[in-house]
Specification:
Blueprint lengths: L1 H13 L5 H15 L10 E6 L8 E6 L8 E5 L9 H14 L4 E5 L3 E6 L10 E6 L5 H11 L2 H6 L1 H10 L3 H16 L8 H11 L6 H10 L31 E4 L2 E4 L3 H15 L3 H6 L10 E2 L16 E5 L2 E4 L4 H15 L7 E4 L32 E6 L5 E6 L4 E3 L4 E2 L9 H12 L3 E4 L2 E4 L3 E3 L2 H9 L5 H4 L8 H7 L2
Parallel strand pairs: 3-4
Antiparallel strand pairs: 1-2, 2-3, 4-5, 5-6, 7-8, 7-12, 9-11, 10-11, 13-14, 14-15, 15-19, 16-18, 17-18
Helix pairs in contact: 7-8, 8-9, 10-12, 13-14
């Protein structure tokens, strides 16, 4: 999806879409195909659809049917740059389509600008617009999430798109501005000068012409509904930190050795908290030095306010411990995350992780053999088993958020190769069963942190290419079109044409 978006953006910049038909066929049609719609099936993607059969003039440019009996989305298409001149007229036109044959969503686009409307709510039609995006101004990852959520076939079928649209329409103008700025704000807090999330939000919202203070941002974050983008629960990696396991055989329980002195603990969480307390007491500059370092992609390891540990997730703020008056450490981490945090702490404190500090977080559970791991398609009612290629062949996926995977396809299924990298976060379109299996792979350390990436620690067999693609890309995915060989030929083309 990201490659398609990049190409569309490039063509928009070059002015390649010169008329309405270019936009409808070469841009909109291409996006719909990527989003799971069968563009070659007129009962699913119906162009020039007569919303009122008796009136030939009321024809929708594109009507999408997720279910056969009623339209799911109307897409009204104009030439690039033509929306702003006639927006009120276009909204009246789309409103009239919906009066006689209501679709769940309506979209008005000129290829560059996209306006999304939720038709199943009251008020004037212009008040039903819940989302607007611009291909030449918005972040690529934000565009992918928006389109996957509100125009993806699976998201519409599952009801997720409707749920998110309803939530968004309930927000005030300021809340909508905060919601729009959240993805970019979360990225800003991970880079110098490392602002807090309220600081970053306040700055971005003010750039939209809305007066907004940091205290207002903090208050809105506390009351705001949980963001649509799921937060990665696993352990946050750091490229500078190596894994250090306790080598002291005299300790048979969880604990740590700091500068030659043994300490016992009841859990890995207690190891984390107690080590951070000791290092804080030994050096008055330790906490400020640690806070200035690069933390996780979505989290702050330590902060002076509990809510700042989990940006956008105030419901997780209780998963923290005070390590020094006015300083908190997040505790919602597994073993790799604790290793990462304490490794960075040693670097800041000027001691060696694995020598000056040894930790034992408990024995790692033995993993079953690969063949004993439940196949990805065995969850009842979830993923059906698909036929795999009758011969061995290698395919690849490279996409946003770090996805960079290699897989071999054979008679047994999809073997994702050791070292393959998966997306470090997931989008709202990711199927629940795939997200659950992704988390299981992380928990079982089949997928592990490596630097700032998440990688497969061993070859792993999937029986369904779409589940494999979804876990690699962190979103809903059609494995038959996402997996491609070195000549950019899809898995689907192999299956259909027997290449």
């Amino acid at each position: 999806m990201d490659e398609v978006l990049r190409d569309i953006i490039e063509k928009l910049r070059h002015g390649d879409y010169q008329n309405e038909e270019h936009v409808r066929f070469s841009l909109v049609g291409r996006l719909l195909f990527e989003l799971g719609w069968d563009v070659w099936n007129p009962t699913e993607v119906n162009t020039e659809f007569a919303a009122v059969p008796a009136e030939d003039r009321t024809r929708v440019d594109v009507a999408l049917f997720a279910k056969s009996y009623s339209p799911s989305v109307y897409v009204e298409v104009k030439a690039v740059g033509k929306i702003g001149q006639n927006l009120s007229e276009l909204e009246r036109q789309v409103r009239d389509y919906n009066r006689n044959n209501t679709a769940l969503f309506s979209t008005i686009t000129d290829g560059r600008t996209w306006r999304f409307y939720y038709s199943q709510t009251g008020g004037e039609f212009h008040q039903k617009c819940f989302k607007e995006c611009d291909f030449l101004q918005d972040d690529l990852e934000d565009l992918e999430q928006t389109f996957s959520m509100f125009l993806g076939k699976e998201s519409i079928l599952s009801g997720r798109a409707e749920d998110e649209a309803r939530k968004y329409l309930q927000l005030s103008n300021k809340q909508r501005a905060v919601q729009d700025c959240l993805p970019q704000a979360r990225r800003l807090v991970q880079a110098p000068p490392f602002p807090t999330l309220p600081e970053a939000i306040a700055k971005l919202v003010e750039q939209k012409g809305i007066v907004f203070s940091e205290s207002e941002a903090a208050e809105f974050l506390e009351r705001m509904p949980e963001p649509a983008t799921p937060v990665l629960t696993p352990k946050e990696p750091s490229p500078r930190v190596a894994r250090a396991t306790m080598r002291n055989d005299s300790l048979s329980q969880i604990g740590y050795v700091l500068k030659g002195k043994n300490y016992s603990a009841r859990s890995g969480k207690e190891v984390l908290v107690e080590v951070m307390k000791l290092l804080s007491k030994s050096d008055p500059n330790f906490l400020s030095g640690f806070a200035a370092r690069k933390h996780g992609k979505r989290r702050r390891y330590i902060a002076q306010a509990q809510n700042d540990l989990y940006p956008g997730r105030p419901d997780l703020s209780h998963l923290s411990e005070e390590i020094y008056p006015g300083w908190w450490v997040g505790t919602n981490y597994g073993k790799p995350g604790i290793n990462t945090i304490l490794g960075l702490a040693c670097e800041v404190a000027g001691i060696t992780f694995g020598t000056d500090l040894l930790i034992d977080l408990g024995k790692k559970a033995k993993l079953p053999e690969l063949k004993d791991y439940p196949p990805s398609n065995t969850v009842p009612g979830r993923q059906k088993k698909e036929p795999i290629l009758p011969f061995k062949s290698t395919f690849y996926i490279k996409a946003v958020r770090g996805a960079n995977a290699k897989a071999e396809f054979n008679q047994e299924g999809v073997v994702t190769k050791q070292g393959s990298e998966i997306a470090t976060s997931v989008t709202p379109t990711m199927p629940d069963h795939a997200e659950k299996q992704r988390q299981e792979l992380i928990d079982r350390e089949i997928v592990v942190p490596k630097g700032d990436k998440l990688v497969f620690s061993q070859d792993f067999l999937f029986t369904n290419p779409s589940v494999a693609a979804a876990i690699v890309m962190g979103r809903s995915a059609n494995g038959w079109t996402e997996w491609k060989d070195e000549k950019d030929r899809t898995l689907k083309s192999y299956k259909e044409k027997d290449i």
